[in-house]
Amino acid sequence: MKLIKLIVCFLLFSLSITVQAQDVVIDEDKSSKDTTTIVKNAFFKLFTGKPGKAAFYGLIAPGGGQIYNKKWWKLPLVYGIEGFLVYRIVDSSTNYNRYQEAYIANLNGGNIIIDNTNDINIIRRRRNNYRKDREYAYVFFIGGHLITIFEAFIDRHLMDFDVSDDLSFVPIVTEIGLFTGVTYRIPLNKTKEINFNNF
């Protein structure tokens, strides 16, 4: 539980920080003077543009970014991952509560048998294991949700990325000082010429 509180506090703290940027102003005397500009709400600039909208929708609802990108085949993967992680949270929480109640009852002199044991040391050890499992499940759920958000964000970027069919290397001889070298260039963003006379 302490780990979850620590993560929530860290997220709230990171959202409240404003980003500071340095601007360099050059005077006519060629001297430079530093000024500080405070940029407010820099976090929300992440959600601008089409990739930002995909990330925003993914943040609001599981699979929202994939729906915005119209990648329907990814929805079963997203819901499968997040559904499994929710199941792990619920299952470990239920078992933790069962063992916690049995542990407290046996401490107070009761004789509660849970999963064929009433040994207080075994009950305490199993309770601690289920508490650890629950905390890990929360961390994995947050991580899994963030992965689906990043996937939608990156996928939207790649949808607008122009990839040419010609990916051949073009060697170019260059002179670097006294030495002659060879550099390679990949021709990207070339447009194909279509000859309409053949139609």
What attributes characterize this protein structure?
single chain; 199 residues; 15% strand; alpha+beta; two-stranded antiparallel ribbon; two-stranded antiparallel sheet
Extract low-pLDDT stretches.
Answer: 15-32
Number of strands: 4
Average pLDDT level:
75
Q: State the end-to-end CA separation.
A: 70 Å
What would the principal axes of the Cα set say about the shape? Answer: elongated
Please give a quick description of this structure.
The chain has five helices and four strands, in the order H-E-E-H-H-H-H-E-E. It has 199 residues and is an alpha+beta fold. Helix 2 runs antiparallel to helix 5 (120-159) and helix 4 runs antiparallel to helix 5.
Structural notes for this entry:
With 199 residues, the chain is of the alpha+beta class. Helix content is 53%, strand content 15%. The chain contains five helices and four strands, in the order H-E-E-H-H-H-H-E-E. It has helices at 2-16, 49-60, 64-68, 75-107, 120-159, and strands at 19-26, 32-39, 170-176, 179-185. Strands 1-2 form a two-stranded antiparallel sheet. A two-stranded antiparallel sheet has the order 3-4. Helix 2 (49-60) packs antiparallel against helix 5. It starts with a helix and ends in a 14-residue tail after the last strand. Residues 15-32 have low confidence and may be disordered.
